[in-house]
Amino acid sequence: MKQIILTSVLLFSFIWVHGQYQSDSIAIKKAFGTRFQQNGRNLTPRQLLDITKSNPDALAEMKLAKRNYDVGYVFGFAGGFLIGWPIGTAIGGGDPNWTLAAIGAGLAVISIPFTVSYTKHAKNAVHIYNKELKYSYFAEPDLKIGLTYNGVGIQIKF
E strands along 52-100, which residues? Predict the structure, then answer.
């Protein structure tokens, strides 16, 4: 009789115990710009977009961030190329076209607001995503006691 009572008490006490899980939150790190990390690995804007698909508000914000990132990347890459070409020509001993470098500097300056906007929207998306993780709830376990093929059985669904 003692074993049945002890077993019953243990079974019913485990109903309210929740398993532990590794946090899926995204960390924001500051170092030579803003980096986003999840479980110790750096995330690209595309990965951030994929991760935030589970939260519509975070996804909408991340889509804005990704659009700004793409535009800023194009301007920044083109500007860097146009700056680097005359510098490389000068190092190689040729006659550099400094007008290209000036245009490249202008394109690089144009990319800065897009990069700032990307960072702002991506941080906002991460905050929305992380906030939703904190308030997500665990489903209550479902305990069923009934007849099975082998007699009386207990079924617990999490």
Answer: none
158 class by beta-carbon count within 10 Å (0-12 exposed, 13-18 middle, 19+ buried)? exposed
Reference 71, options 33, 102, 114; nearest CA is 114
The two structure tokens encoding residue 82: 């146009």
Q: What's the sign of the alpha-carbon dihedral 115, 116, 118, 123?
A: positive
Q: Say how far apart CA 122 and CA 64 lie, in whole Å.
A: 8
2, 19, 4: which is closest to 154 by C-alpha?
4
Mean pLDDT computed over 77-94: 94
Tens-digit pLDDT profile for residues 26-43: 888 888 888 898 888 889
Per DSSP, helices labelled H in 92-153 are 98-135
Query: What letter would DSSP give residue 54?
Result: G
How confident is the model over 88-144, as pLDDT tens digits? 999 999 899 999 999 999 999 999 999 999 999 999 999 999 888 765 555 566 777
Secondary structure of residue 3 in the 3-state scheme? helix
At 116, list the tokens. Answer: 């700032």
